[in-house]
Amino acid sequence: MNTTEIREVSMKELAQAFEGKFINVSSTDHYGIAIEMTRGTIEYEDDLKPELWLVSRDSESNVTGSVTFDEDTIETIEESNGTYTISFSIAMADIDISEYKSLEQLQKEHDEKQEV
Prior knowledge:
Blueprint: E1 7-8, H1 11-17, E2 23-27, E3 37-45, E4 51-57, E5 63-70, E6 74-80, E7 83-88, E8 95-99, H2 103-115
């Protein structure tokens, strides 16, 4: 029996989960505003009000674009098996955030599974 546990997390917990890692962002649907980001970072700021930053980066980690959400635009953040899904309170498709893996990393994981 495969039971998947879904838990709700805060913006800060989401940012901490990917601290020091690159992320992959994909929209779960294509209506309203959709976001696709293949290699980025996630940052949390709490100066005047809590904000979540999704920052797209190139292979040298230079910023190539970003999008910011304040807490009013985020309805929920749920985690399941290492993938975080953000649901928005505005006309925007939910997004899934997972750890970015290079082709080399994916090939290595695939090879390790073959050896078992």
